[in-house]
Fold this sequence. Notes:
Blueprint lengths: L1 H29 L29 H5 L14 H20 L3 H23 L4 H23 L2 H33 L6 H39 L12 H26 L4
Helix pairs in contact: 1-3, 1-4, 3-4, 4-5, 4-8, 5-6, 5-7, 6-7, 7-8
Amino acid sequence: MEALFTAVSSLIIFAVGASFGSFLNVVVYRLPAKLSLFWPPSRCPDCLRPLKKRDNVPVLGWLWLKGRCRFCKSRISKRYPLVEAGTGLLFLLVFWFYGFSWLTLGYWAFLSWLLALSLIDLDTMTLPNVLTQSGLMAGLVFQGTVGFLHASQWTGVSQQLMSGIVGAVLGIWLFDLISFVGSILFGQTAMGGGDAKLAAMMGAWLGWKYLLLSGFIACAVGACAGGGAIALGWLDRRQPMPFGPFLALGAALTVFWGEAIVSTYMRLFFPLI
């Protein structure tokens, strides 16, 4: 009976996540183009005919249509079902880590923000202020909620809020400093202003300690990926590369394994503390 409940709840959570992924596809496509997120309803970008309701079913709709518009037969990008399925899997992973809790709801929202920002950065090399700023405010609300629920008093709220505020301030200062120093060293813009705002958003959600961890992971992975791309001739030395996806990856890994990484680090290098 327990196995059946787990299977059914996992299927429902995946479906909910995939539905959010479908909305994220809309955000990623329409927000940079300054289009309404809610009107007109979903339609084919080629023939502009509205999609039928069954065509909008996450993942399955694309499979039923065999990746082509029902009307004009133009190809529908594979990214749509991949984003939907990926969001569903992220929702499942968060649920498996945190169970039925407010943390689960919060991290569903946080990872959705990160995924949308990453895809927009890959497409346009920009990180829209409307997403980073709203994400920062949502992060502070999340911190206050966690403080209230865990401490059951306003002292916990103020402590958690302060953690988020310090993390946000540290994020924007630290990455602005990295951008300034990098620009001097390399003679060109080393990092966009949106990256610092994304780091501030991450700090609001994670607090200063886990912001530093996620920033370190992002820089390490980004340096390896960039160096490898240059070595393979895929990227020119002075060609800009979106850094938002690496920040998002660092934050996502921190959500799942941040506590384990920090505790392992402290045990290895500061065993007496």
